[in-house]
Amino acid sequence: VNYGRVNLDFTTLGFTLGVALLCGLVFGLAPAFENSGPDLTSALKEASGQASGARRGLRLRKIFVAGEIALAVIVLIATTLLVRSFVISVRSSMGFQAANVLVAQVSLPPAKYAQDALARNFAEATLDRIGALPGVVSAGAASGVPFGGFGQVVEIEAIGKPAPQPGEALGARFSAVSPDYFSTMRIGLIKGRFFTPADASGNAPVAIISQTLARQFWQNEDPVGQKLRFGSAHTLATIVGVVNDVKMYQLRARPERQMYVPLAQFPSKTLGFVARIAASDPTALAPAIRSAIWAVDSDQPVSSVEPMETLVAVVDTPNRVVTKIMVYFGLLAMLLGAIGIYGVMSQLVAQRTHEMGIRLALGAEPGDVMRLIVGQGIKLAFMGIAVGVLLALALTRSLAILLYGVRPDDPLTFAGVAILFAIVAAAAAYAPARRAMRVDPVTALRSE
């Protein structure tokens, strides 16, 4: 999938065109019905200046503008929630340092590497060659690297804890890793130790678990030394360490249960080799890493050799695209709301010029006239804001699955959007109010 390329979809284009035509028809019918049975007496009074304006028409326009503001508030609240979620996810720790890490992923042919010893020897020989390359600070391997194409989940059971009920077994993300994998990825150790060459084939199985998994089973105990049963073979392993949680597939993912075992004890036919490079541009070593793999097996295909930062960016591209689109829609919605308020207030001032002239002639201050017009604009906006906030409280619940670190009913977001729209409404009504306060009473009365 190429997330950087957008193709024109004629089905979507046709649907959009149909919605646009329908909206034009629906909103065009409203004034048509409004004027389908005109009151000739009222029309003659308006024409002769004996009426202050078409009040019914103005009321209808106010309703439309309030509805427009309500929709704009919903869109802007949803946009703000998504943007805040995106910013929090980007700033949150992934559990490892992706900078200056090069990843090479391979999948060993099952027929050629049917025996575990062959897969183990391939991984060890390849790691030795990659680690010896000039510019490589350290190298490691895993059956599945973060944001890569491989992964596995196994059922787990903590020995000494209540056994799960049938059908309620817990799962954990499972990775077989080399001893230097954690130091290469800069995954922090919380308790215990990392794997060592002593954790080899034939020795007692050991495991390292994530902080989330340790907290679930041994919140008030030391998990190091505890035993864990996992997999279809019900393998029993002793926990030797606890490490930080690692985001494996999504930046917005919640902490997951994770466990690691030595690659020497559990060889894998899917491998991701990670190399921390001293240079600022790790891609320069990509050909050398390919050559190191082919030196061990010249027939082994290498699916990709690319920076870890690229893997993260590719996986998160859809979230970035959706966030940008929502930002554009939010700004457009706010602009349309401001234009609607400006239009209604402008027409109100034009229809009430005679009234403004009388007010000024009777001693009203220009500031009083401005406060009157701006107040009506803000009142109109508050009606739309109130409806929009109430609808958003119900509709934004569907965004919960897309949000990270922020609730769909976040009070700060709702209050911020409401205040922002109130300011926009005041600014939109300011220009018509300025015109109203400058009305010449003599000219206004004479024109009427």
Tell me briefly what this model is.
By secondary structure, the protein is an alpha+beta fold. Helix content is 50%, strand content 15%. The protein is built from 12 helices and 11 strands.
What does this molecule look like?
It contains twelve helices and eleven strands. With about 450 residues, the chain is α+β, with helices and mostly antiparallel strands. Helix 4 runs antiparallel to helix 7, helix 8 crosses helix 10 and helix 10 runs antiparallel to helix 11. The longest helix has about 45 residues. The relative contact order is 0.16. About 0% of the residues have low confidence.
Features:
about 450 residues; alpha+beta; four-stranded antiparallel sheet; 12 helices
List the topology elements:
Elements: H1 10-34, H2 40-47, H3 55-91, E1 101-107, H4 116-131, E2 136-142, E3 153-158, E4 170-177, H5 181-185, E5 189-192, E6 206-210, H6 211-217, E7 227-230, E8 235-243, E9 258-262, E10 270-277, H7 286-296, E11 304-307, H8 308-351, H9 353-361, H10 366-395, H11 411-437, H12 441-447
Parallel strand pairs: 4-9, 6-8
Antiparallel strand pairs: 1-10, 1-11, 2-10, 3-4, 3-7, 5-8, 6-9, 7-8
Helix pairs in contact: 3-8, 3-10, 3-11, 4-7, 8-10, 8-11, 9-12, 10-11
Q: Which class of secondary structure composition applies to the elements?
A: alpha+beta
Strand order within the widest beta sheet:
3-4-9-6-8-7
Round the mean pLDDT to the nearest integer and report it: 81
Unreliable spans: 46-53
What is the 3D form?
Answer: elongated
Count, helices: 12
β-sheet strand percentage: 5-15%
Q: What is the alpha-carbon Rg in Å?
A: 33 Å
* Secondary structure: helix percent: 40-55%
Q: Terminal Cα separation, in Å?
A: 68 Å
Major sheet details = 6 strands, mixed, barrel
